[in-house]
Fold:
Amino acid sequence: MLNKSVLIAGMALSLAATASQGTEYQFIDLTPPGAAAAQVWDVNNRGQVVGSVSSAGGGSFVWQAGSFTTIAAPSGAVGYTAFSISETGVVVGSYHDTLVTDPSTGQQVPGPTKGWVRDGGVDTIITIPGASFVQPRGISPDGRYVAGYYQDASFGNVGFVLDRNTGDMVSTNAPNSRFNIAQGINASLQVAGGDTLTGLGPIGYVFDIGSGTRSNVSLPGTNGTRLRDLDNFGRFAGWATVPVPGGPSITQGVVGTVSSFEFLMFPGSAYTALQGINDAGWISGSYSDAVTGSDFRGFLAIPIPEPATWTLWLIGVGAVLAWRRRKTV
Structure:
């Protein structure tokens, strides 16, 4: 098992000849106190990190400068997850308000999953005709555009971008898409996503909202790529499946650009997936002791040195060590 200390110094790993030299990071474990497992999703330019705990019904939080704040559930929710927060404080996620019986097991499982957007304390529900599962995963810095996916019986997962101002929704799918998740959006209105294409397997992509064009990303030296976020400099965060001679492939976080990227593993982990990146190079994600990714814990990785946010980082670390009080919003 890993040493679950709050602050761990480590080095980003560069395991392929095509990857750039590793950046040094300070790693902060962001699994809230008392939680057995958690996943961390987004980090914005205000230093706000969104995560979710793995417990009955689920639940989500925002971490900022060392303080955990619980994100309240949508009205009537039985279980919920928040995935992203804009620079303007708009939160997006998904929830379910019913439980149904699985006929094959007799167990209670979540009913239809709906999307939700919280803006100024007001929740807006997102449903799509014919889809029993809708999951918004990212929001643009100004809070206007929402990215995510829904499940379609004919096409599998369909990635989408919703314009909250007009109500217009566009698909980020390619003709041979089968498992598409659209997520992070930067200020240039580029969406990071991952897809599984018939005959090609897992790839990442960048979708441009303005032009409606999509550029696929397949990193050399990997068996599959998933992109999850883009900063305003065009750097992506995500993960890739990396082959290991004589052993099973390993899921490793990946950050950078197509021409200059590096692999990033939480120190001592067997599975690391990156979910968010901000303009200061802060990276959010989740890790596991197991290759299969069970029992996730969340983390934040901050580059060293980083003078512009060093003071904030020191404040955050001190607060994490003290486990300051949590509050509900």
About this structure: The helical segments are 310-322. The chain has one domain: 12-305.
